[in-house]
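STRUCTURE:
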């Protein structure tokens, strides 16, 4: 299972980015995705990547590398 999510507010991401998802919200979304049996779990703003991967995979790959 792959979980694709935006930046999560943890000690490791301190000082990076502005809008971060809370760790509790990220964990709950991962658990919900595992319950659904999905092979990929797109969380928060990363949900837009699902469509981008279908329409313009090279653009999506560049976004994810940042």
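SEQUENCE:
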């Amino acid at each position: 299972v792959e979980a694709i999510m935006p930046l999560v507010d943890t000690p490791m991401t301190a000082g990076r980015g502005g809008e971060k998802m809370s760790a509790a919200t990220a964990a709950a979304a991962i658990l919900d995705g595992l319950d659904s049996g999905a092979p990929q779990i797109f969380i928060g703003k990363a949900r837009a990547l699902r469509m981008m991967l279908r329409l313009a995979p090279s653009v999506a790959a560049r976004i994810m590398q940042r």
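REMARK: The mean pLDDT is 89.
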